[in-house]
Design a protein that fits this description.
CATH superfamily of the largest domain in chain B: Histidine kinase-like ATPase, C-terminal domain
Largest interface: A-B, 20 and 25 residues
Number of helices of chain A: 8
Radius of gyration of chain B: 45 Å
Shape of chain A: globular
Number of strands of chain B: 12
CATH class of the largest domain in chain B: Alpha Beta
CATH topology of the largest domain in chain B: Heat Shock Protein 90
Number of strands of chain A: 12
Structural class of chain A: alpha/beta
Strand order of the largest sheet of chain A: 2-1-3-4-5
Largest sheet of chain B: 5 strands, antiparallel
Helix content of chain B: 55-70%
Strand order of the largest sheet of chain B: 2-1-5-4-3
Oligomer: heterodimer
Shape of chain B: rod-shaped
Number of helices of chain B: 13
Strand content of chain A: 15-25%
Number of domains of chain B: 3
Distance between the termini of chain B: 55 Å
Helix content of chain A: 40-55%
Order of helices and strands of chain B: HHHHHHEEHEEEHHEHEEHEEHHEE
């Protein structure tokens, strides 16, 4: 990592949570900028160009998802969405609109810092262009299209391999059901009915995971999507 | 029916029959008196008696007189023709005199007869009307719901008049909406004017009245306690547009009854609404009481620990006990957070209709998510998971169902007294998937079993604070899914909680 501290813009309207976040992030070695409203966040993004935005979805003046959409039109800046229980649906919407990750209130400081580190690392390693991806005993070779677990080659069907590859090229990132559906079965796939994806995932897990009840490589984000372990 | 009766008896044929009968009687009585008494004189009373009795049934006095005259004239003719022997000749004048008296008698008796008969008919008619009315109004009285009453009303109008009927109900805003019709789906010409006039003037409007008399619909106001509740419409048959005044009156009487019943049902409904609100209010206050009790306990702990840490008193704390205090604050705060989350779920599935984010989810993913959460929250506990071999998806709100299962696991870990070997399983049962959480602890007290899923303030007084609240929340979430939750003690010891969730997307089951 570089010597310069990464800067993080916190967009949060609750002053108490803002204070906690600032303290936690400062302790984690980040420089923080704060914005209370969507309008403030907009100007702070363009004037400070932070490395990451911690975006609360429930803003007083505008929809957090709208802000994210605007940002994504001109920048690939990292965005972690912070959602409360009442904004579950928005969470998926935010992921589909280009958020890198999400975290649900309430969360602990170590959890938040770990998520931030993961997102920042993802960028610096540029794993999407790598030839292989490894996590624990899991290994995938994108060129040879081979998946190994415990040095044993796993036989996957064409579709199963493509799902695993898609997840492995975005390690640590939650991919929503809709996103995976449209990437594997095309944009016209009936994303309302994702049974085919769920069945395939069940098969993949039976093949990959030593205990499919305690998955280690492909994790379930219930109601949202899947995530490849880092 | 009434007019028909008159028609048949006033037929010329019938009258001629009667006249013929009188002539035959005259001849017979003439022959009888000749043979028995050798005297025609005795034929006269016999003949007039027969003629009088027959003339009673004549449709009117004139025909009655004609009938009697026929008998008398026949007798005169017979007397003149056959009186050849030397029996004393009856003076024709006497016969004529008797005839005149008979005709007068016939006139009077006929009149009386018809008068009595008319009265009898009208009594009969009235009693039939009353009987049918009472039958219909009894049916109306037994109507359980407003819809049933609407249906019954239109059907009764049809059975009285034979006309298609329709009922418009006046809502709170004063607008009239069609509530029922017989036959169903009856098509109507525009009739809003007539209906509105009926509402406005509270009198019969439409066909044959001063208001929109050209409209084929006759509108009757349906009111009770001087308040117009509805408008009943009767569509006159185009081929037989005349409905008798009697039918109109019966309909009106029936509608009075319908109005009273309608008023009664509305009042009952309002009463029930009030009762339900009271019950709800009672439940709400119970719920609030139990929540505030549940919240007070951990909050007391947090405030106590904070005051110790603040060091305002003279207690000197070592690092170890400071850490313990911080941990206890954290633990209590986390419990509070979870409870608040639970409460949020309940408001989501609460009274304003369930707002579930349902999606088909594989059972294995639900179970593995619960297991993952349970393992991180209770690292010391030990879980056994069982699931069906088949791949099954059920329509659920995954976040809420995971929360329900987590609540059950939390109870199993905390209150069973034995956190090892807690079983989490799912089984496939035709229409339902049954999730169950089972522990091997000391089970639940017999007296709490019946009120397990009720938020009760009194039970949370013991150490198991929050258990009742958690379970009542579980119940409301499962109910919103159209499922069922139950809890009991297993025969081999320990508590078992089972959740039945329908596989099909149907809230009406169970």
């Amino acid at each position: 990592m570089s010597n310069i501290k990464s800067s993080i813009l916190i967009v949060e309207d609750e002053s108490y949570i803002m204070k906690v976040l600032e303290t936690a992030l400062a302790a984690g070695g980040y420089r923080t900028i704060s914005a209370v409203t969507g309008a403030q966040a907009r100007s702070a993004i363009s004037s400070y160009m932070p490395d990451m935005v911690l975006l609360d979805l429930g803003l007083p003046d505008m929809d957090g998802v709208k802000l994210l959409k605007e940002l994504r039109q001109w920048s690939a800046m990292h965005v972690i969405v912070v959602s409360a229980r009442s904004t579950e649906r928005d969470k998926i919407l935010a992921l589909d609109n280009g958020a890198d990750d999400y975290i649900t209130k309430p969360f602990s400081a170590p959890e938040l810092l770990a998520r931030i580190r993961a997102v920042l690392r993802r960028n610096s390693s540029g794993s999407a262009n790598d030839d292989t991806y490894c996590v624990g005993d899991f290994n995938i070779d994108f060129n040879k299209r081979i998946v190994n677990v415990n040095n044993e080659t796993i036989r996957l069907t064409q579709v199963e391999y493509r799902i695993v590859e898609l997840l492995a090229r975005n390690p640590g990132k939650v991919l929503t059901y809709d996103y995976i559906m449209s990437n594997i079965w095309g944009p016209y796939a009936d994303s309302e009915n994702n049974r085919i994806l769920r069945v395939n995932m069940s098969h993949i897990r039976k093949k990959l995971e030593p205990d499919s009840m305690k998955p280690r490589y492909i994790l379930t984000e219930i109601g949202v999507g899947y995530r490849m372990a880092e | 029916m009434k007019s028909g009766l008159y028609k048949t008896s006033s037929g010329i044929y019938k009258n001629l029959q009667r006249i013929l009968l009188c002539i035959v009687f005259s001849v017979l009585s003439f022959i009888f008196s000749r043979l028995t008494f050798q005297n025609t004189f005795y034929a006269l009373p016999l003949c007039t008696l027969a003629a009088l009795s027959i003339s009673i049934f004549a449709p009117n006095a004139a025909w009655g007189a004609v009938t009697v005259s026929a008998a008398v004239i026949t007798l005169i003719l017979l007397e003149q023709t056959f009186n050849t022997d030397n029996s004393p000749v009856q003076p024709i004048a006497f016969i004529i005199y008797t005839g005149a008296v008979s005709i007068a008698a016939a006139l009077i008796t006929n009149r009386w007869y018809w008068h009595i008969r008319k009265q009898r008919d009208s009594y009969q008619e009235q009693s039939t009307r009353e009987r049918s009315l009472s039958q219909l109004s009894t049916a109306l009285l037994t109507a359980a719901s407003e819809e049933e009453l609407h249906e019954l009303t239109v059907r009764s109008i049809f059975s009285i008049t034979g006309c298609s009927a329709v009922l418009f109900i006046r809502d709170k805003k004063g607008a009239t909406n069609r509530a029922a019709s017989y036959p169903k789906g009856l098509l109507l010409y525009p009739c809003d004017d007539a209906v509105n006039a009926c509402v406005k003037n509270n009198c019969r409007t439409g066909f044959g009245t001063v208001y929109f008399g050209e409209n084929p619909l006759v509108c009757f106001p349906v009111s009770a306690n001087g308040k117009l509740l509805a408008v009943a419409g009767m569509l006159l048959n185009s081929d037989e547009p005349i409905t008798t005044e009697y039918q109109m009156q019966t309909t009106e009487l029936l509608l009075v009854c319908a109005g009273i019943v309608l008023d009664k049902i509305t009042m009952l409904k309002r009463e029930q609404q009030i009762l339900m609100e009271k019950e709800l209010e009672h439940m709400r206050s119970d719920f609030l009481r139990s929540i505030s009790h549940d919240f007070r306990t951990p909050l007391t702990g947090i405030i106590g620990a904070c005051s110790m840490l603040n060091g305002s008193n003279d207690i000197v704390l070592d690092i170890r006990s400071r850490q313990e205090l911080v941990e206890s604050i954290n633990g209590e705060a986390e419990w509070l957070m979870r409870t608040v989350e639970n409460l949020l779920s309940v408001t989501r599935v609460g009274s304003n209709g369930p707002k579930l984010n349902k999606s088909p989810e594989p059972i294995e993913e639900i179970l593995s998510t619960v297991l993952d959460k349970a393992a991180s929250r209770f690292p010391q506990a030990e879980f056994i998971v069982k699931q069906p071999d088949d791949f099954i998806m059920i329509p659920v709100d995954p976040v809420l169902i995971v929360q329900v299962l987590m609540n059950l696991i939390e109870n199993a870990v905390k209150y069973s007294g034995n956190s090892s070997g807690i079983e989490l399983s799912a089984a496939d049962n035709d229409k339902y998937v049954i999730f169950s959480v089972r522990d091997h602890g000391h089970g639940m007290k017999q007296e709490t079993l019946s009120t397990l899923f009720e938020p009760s303030a009194c039970r949370s007084g013991d150490s198991t604070h929050g258990m009742g609240l958690g379970l009542s929340i579980c119940k409301s979430i499962v109910a919103a899914h159209g499922g069922m939750i139950e809890g009991h003690n297993a025969e081999s010891g320990g508590a078992v909680f089972m959740i039945h969730l329908p596989k099909e997307n149907n809230n009406e089951q169970y």
